[in-house]
Amino acid sequence: MDGLAELRAKYLEQIAAAPDADALEAVRLAGLGKKGEISGRMRELGRMTPEERKTAGPALNALKDEIDAALRARKAALEDAALDARLAQEWLDITLPPRPRPQGSVHPVAQVMEEMAAIFADMGFAVAEGPQVETDWHNFDALNIAPEHPARQEHDTFFMHREPGDNRPPHVLRTHTSPVQIRAMQVQGAPIRVIAPGRVYRMDMDQTHTPMFHQIEGLAIDRAITMANLKWVLEEFFTAYFGTPVRTRFRASHFPFTEPSAEVDIQCSWVNGQLRVGEGEDWMEVLGSGMVHSHVLRSAGIDPDQWQGFAFGMGIDRMAMLKYGIPDLRAFFESDLRWLRHYGFGALQAPSLHAG
Ligand code: DAH
Hints:
The chain is an alpha+beta fold. The chain has twelve helices and ten strands. Helix 2 packs antiparallel against helix 4 (50-89) and helix 5 packs across helix 11.
């Protein structure tokens, strides 16, 4: 058969010169594809005399095999080269110093909320939540604070803006966490044992007040809960929180949502201007509490002839200041990185009842 040597030379040259996989495939199709040149020659074999075929057949087959092998070899070589190029480009200098990764810290308020939740959880209290934009019914009326009650003014409430003609019930920024009591009782009924830590808002700003601060509410309703249970729970809490036995003193007080009501002081001393909790002869007021008023139970759909219990509310920010020796409340909310680094906690310093 004529021209096989030229054909061989042509294809081997094109294969060797193919710069990439696509070009190589084009060469393969031109030669060995269905309509390829060499395939065409194969078809011609049918028209030959047996004599001619005897020599042309094997020669053509050998050529086909040789070109096929050359194509494979070139393909493998191209793939190797591509891999080498990628490896050369993607190398990694593992001796380089890493990029700095700024580490945040857990704010003392967040940390203290976690600590408090852990202590109360141990006494069977679950965490409840409510909205910060609250209906004035939940924030006041349901808590037995009538519209004309002076507490509405005392709380220096932020009222939400209403367009003229907007007749939805008025909303406020909640002035305390007490409305979460109502929401929790409405959802869960009695018996119930919850705490509700969160943000509260009052129009107040000076050395010891910020317009937003944090409270934690406690609520326990059952058939026969008394103030003795309240006192025990609070003393257990303060003892665990401060890590030293802490006595409490109850002083008669008034809150619209409790009857009777008590303000609670914890035992402390001042030594060289330094406060020590759990020792000495002084007392420091830390929370308000009492037995939940029957009107409040009724507003939340609970029968006061069947159920009774206690509630309390405590400022979280000051509890954080007391425990961690933080002098100024306003710094809590200034987002000063130096302050946060100094007073903040590591992400892994998870509070537990057994942490030192
Ligand atoms: N809500 C009160 C406040 O913000 C604190 C408080 C007092 C909560 C007595 C209570 C309570 O649950 O029983 O000042």
